[in-house]
Amino acid sequence: MTFRIAVVQPICHPPGSDAANIAEAERAIARAAGEGAHFVCFPETYPGPWRMPAAFDPTAAMVEAAAKHRTHVVFGTIAPIDAKAATAHNLICMAYPDGRAPARYRRTHPNGPWIYTGGTAWEFQWVPGDDFPVFDTTHGKVGLAMCSEVYMPEVARALALRGAELIFMPAGKDKGKLWATWRTLIWARAIENLAVVVTTQNLFNHSERGLAMVASPEEILFESTIAGTAVVDVCLERVRHLRASRDEVGSSQTYATKQGVLGPQWQRPELYDRIYPRPLREAAE
Question: What span, in angstroms and rounded, lies between the C-alpha atoms of 211 and 83?
Answer without folding.
Answer: 33
